[in-house]
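Researcher: Sequence recovery benchmark, item below. Answer with residues only.
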């Protein structure tokens, strides 16, 4: 028994959507989100104990790993301050 093309496409889309929903549900949301305002140059945010970080811009990236130290920077003519966001998880 074969399915017609008009039935295969919706079935394939349904399977794809189901797989995406299951994968998205397994991606945990961060416990906290920090906004950092610092002088121009490099800024280092370090978790000393009980947490892990990820850059807020990487939240939707499944290949981005969690880290204990997160750094970012900005520079340029006329740049005096820069800001960034760091998402994190409390490790119990």
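Model:
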């Amino acid at each position: 028994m074969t399915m017609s093309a008009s039935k295969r496409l919706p079935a394939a889309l349904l399977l794809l959507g189901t797989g995406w929903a299951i994968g998205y549900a397994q991606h945990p949301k961060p416990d906290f989100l920090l906004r950092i305002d610092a002088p121009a140059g490099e800024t280092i945010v370090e978790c000393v104990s009980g947490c892990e970080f990820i850059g807020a811009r990487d939240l939707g990236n499944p290949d981005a790993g969690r880290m204990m130290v997160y750094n970012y920077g900005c520079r340029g003519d006329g740049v005096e301050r820069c800001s960034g966001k760091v998402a994190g998880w409390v490790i119990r």
